[in-house]
Give the backbone structure.
Amino acid sequence: NAGVTQTPKFRILKIGQSMTLQCTQDMNHNYMYWYRQDPGMGLKLIYYSVGAGITDKGEVPNGYNVSRSTTEDFPLRLELAAPSQTSVYFCASSGPGQGANQPQHFGDGTRLSIL
Amino acid sequence: AQSVTQLGSHVSVSEGALVLLRCNYSSSVPPYLFWYVQYPNQGLQLLLKYTSAATLVKGINGFEAEFKKSETSFHLTKPSAHMSDAAEYFCAVTSNFGNEKLTFGTGTRLTIIP
C-alpha cells in the first residue's frame, strides 16, 4: 500500500524557473492538501481540494497553483520560482468521505531550493 | 478562528524519564485535536486524535494525551522515554463546523539523552 507518493524528493531551481510537484494517493481519499514547512514555523496550508474538480486557497497560496482532475492526483505548480519558496513541501490526503475527525496521511515531502 | 500554541520548541529528556510535550489550543467551537510525529526526512504520522469521545486518548508507541477543556490543553505524555522517540512533534486543531482544515502548532523537537 503506497499511501501518498510525492515526486521529486529533491529539486534545485533557478529564480524564475517553473516546476510541478507531483502528488498521488491510492487510498480513494476525497480530501487532498499541500503544505509547506519552514524551520520553526510548523506547516502552512497552501491549497486544498475536497474532490476532483474542486480546489481552494489555504493560508499561503501566492505564487502557487493547483489542479485536481482526478481523485488520485493533486499537482502543485510553481510558475516563477522565488527564493522565498525554498521550503519542504508536503502533500496529504484524508478520507474516505467527509469528516474533520479523519486523520491526514502525509507523503515524505519534496525538498525544494531556489537559487 | 483556531490556533495552537506549543510551549517549548526544544525538549530534552533522559532515556526512561517522563516525556511531557505541551499544547494549548484556541477554538470558538468544539475542537478536534491531533498529535503528529515527524522523523527526520519523513512526512508526518498520526500519533493520536481527540474527537469528543474519551478525554484521555491513547496513541501509538505508548503515547497518550488528555483533553482538558477548562485549561484548553491537550498535552502529550509518555511514562518512559525511549531513544526511538527522538523526533519532532506537532499538535494540530480543527473542528467539524464546515472548516476541516488543520491548523498546526510550530512543533517541539524532542531529544532523548542516553
Observations:
- The longest strand of chain B covers residues 87-95.
- Chain B is about 0% helix and 55% strand.
